[in-house]
Amino acid sequence: MLSAYRELKDGTIDSTELDVHLEGCPSCRQMLARDMFIGGRLRALPTIEPPPEMHGRLMRTLAHEHAQYLQKAPPGSVPTPEFLKPYLQEHARITQISNHFSALSTAETGPLPIVHAKRRRRPRSHMSQFAVLGLAAMFLMVMMMGGIASLLILARNNTGNLAHVYTNGASLTFTEIQKGSVATSTPYQHVASAVANRTGIYYSAYQSDKQTTWMLLQLDRASKKSTPLLTQPTDQPMIVLDSTPQWLVWLQFDKPFARSQNNVPGTDLRPWSLRILSLVQVAQSPVPLTPAILLNGTFDQSTAPTWVHTPIQGVWLAQSVLFVATIDSKGASHLLEYQLDLSGKSAGIEIAKAAPGDILTSPTASSDATAVYWADEWMNDAGILSSNIMMRQETTESGPAHFSQRRWVTDTTQSIQQGAFREDSMSFRPQIADGTLFWLSTATNAPKGTPTASQTPRVATPQLSPILIPRTEPGIYAPALDASVPGQIFAQPLDGLTPPITVNNGGAAYALQVGTDFALWQNGKGYEMYDVPTQSDVTIGNTLNDATILAVNGNSAVWLANRTTNATPDAQGQSTLLPVNFFSFDWPK
Asked: Residue 441: which of 457, 425, 454 has the closest Cα?
């Protein structure tokens, strides 16, 4: 009815019901204002007259096409439109100049067959046009019969090395999985953290067992060459947290120092900084660049909650928006938002602050960053980790449309709603993939609605001690406690119109990670995977079972497997470094 609003207002149809609805529906008012604005602009455009020669050019083109069609059709089987006959005669006259034989085929005489001289066929190295069309038709039939199956593109060390994927009912199944690895030669043999995209792997590593020489490196998956990203190494750990095609974010520690009061053993303070690097500038610069420091502070274990051992409790990065969950030197937990900018240091805006004793963790957001989710965790009286999921939603409301300065406009107001999304003490690790919110719940039944604190008190929840494959080397950067909490994985579209569903089938799940279009988690038997666009399970088999660290980033996953040694003596007894092997795959949409 909005599309025909002008006609409705002319009185041809009763618009009373629509007018009443518009008074109470801001989204429809906004849509109406937009349509009226566009319609008004279109009606105000001047009439476009075609060039004078346009009609003649069109008719001559049609005559040429029709003449070719007549040549292939049996005589008299194809009628010629009356409006086209003069142009066919003109086409025949023009053709007569260069080809007297072809000129005999006119609108009056009808077509004569073209006699082609036989030519000796030459062998071709490529497929014929019909072969290409046949293959395309076959591929289309397979797609129509079996559905569009996602392809698993492994590491680019072998061009065309694909994992075969087929549909099996409502699931996607990998077959003939091959671990495509990228081996790189580097003096930094001990990898502590890594993230990957389709072209590169970004990782931090140290040179010797003493952990005295650290470097941040970029591995090109095509050339298999590792390039240092910093001008000089450091003697303290670095942990890669996240990356996009534009940015790389990592946590860098400085040397710890003793507390000034009484030098009490075991109360060392650990300076740290959160740093970013523009990968666009890295690609354009022949030398390493100086990273920007977004945030720095000092981590004090005596003021932080006892189960927390790191100052950063999670980041979310997309485009140029970064959300950071961090703990300050006094043990207070904050959620900060940064708008990354190449022109200077970005200032953080506080989105939320936790209550004393709680920490904020696992920030995630919609693609436009207007909906933000995070977890609020605490340790209850029974010593059990508990968690709620919080949210912050930005909405734009439009008022009635009105005419101003010769155009229709609407006054818009922005509002921010912030509160609990799951306040049940049993919801952990919110993460968004392809417009769907995933989280882990220790509840025994599927969640219904949004429980309030009065309905569901903070109670102890059962927990296990699974064998966890961490994102980073645990001896350098220990995984968060919530990574080991087992439960059910729920998924719910952000539109809120569809109730949540359970997506894990292999028993209690933990260590949930999501990419742009897939979710991956661990269970007691190995791994489970879920393709979000097709809402299908993915049988991943034993592909990741020997991983020592595993990190999902975007639509790529990178992991390292067990290695017995990093060096071996040569014939002269000298130590020779072995290549570092990374395994990775890309999951296309």
From this structure: 425
